[in-house]
Amino acid sequence: MATTRAFKMSTTTNTTSLPNILLIGSTGGTGRLVLESALTRGHKVTALIRPSSALPSHPSLTISKGSPLETGDITTALATINGPVVLISTLGQTRTSGNPFAATTSPPLFMLASATAVAEAIKGQPADKVKKVIVMSMFGTNSSFANLNFLMRATMTYSNMRQTLEDQNAVDKAIKESGMVFVMPRPAMLKGDTALSVKILGDAGEKSGFMPSVSAKSVAEFILDATVSQEWDGRTPVLAN
Fold it and tell me: Where is each NAD(P)-binding domain found (predicted)?
């Protein structure tokens, strides 16, 4: 029987080896956790946020105002950073509530538009500027859909989560075809608020049980561990606790 792999999250604080981070999605739920932990670990972070948004000030945080859908705004944010960069995107489709049938509040293919803008912005950078992109995906995207249980497959197909799934599938394809070094973690259902050890259920969730879940804090810590490790480059690990 296949076994899952446990992944112990790092507590590294050696700032001499930490890359700069350009964070897209820092005002969202998981994005805020990524930002908080990145600053705690000692990363220098530039957050691209919309003009109407705000974040608490921090000595290691630079705010760049603009749209994650605009290549020029992403390019401007990159220009504020000296040295190697890891670009992290935690953007996601939104609804009026967590109910899968709740009305959507994001346009279709919103995340794809941002991923396309990111790829275009990176094309204009020196080859050694952006080391990798880490784009938060989800369990159910493309190759992992078949490994969801039948209830989750039906929910994603017949509820308003379908718009999210279509967007995630398109992002997955676009990032893989872009030529960029990428990591696209696929979290299982987000549940709980404690950072726990992460189990890797395979790149397509082939080691999944019936209803795996993972806390957003665990996902945030995994993303930051992936900024300093090459282990997950070119991978789509499904994450659970």
Answer: 25-226
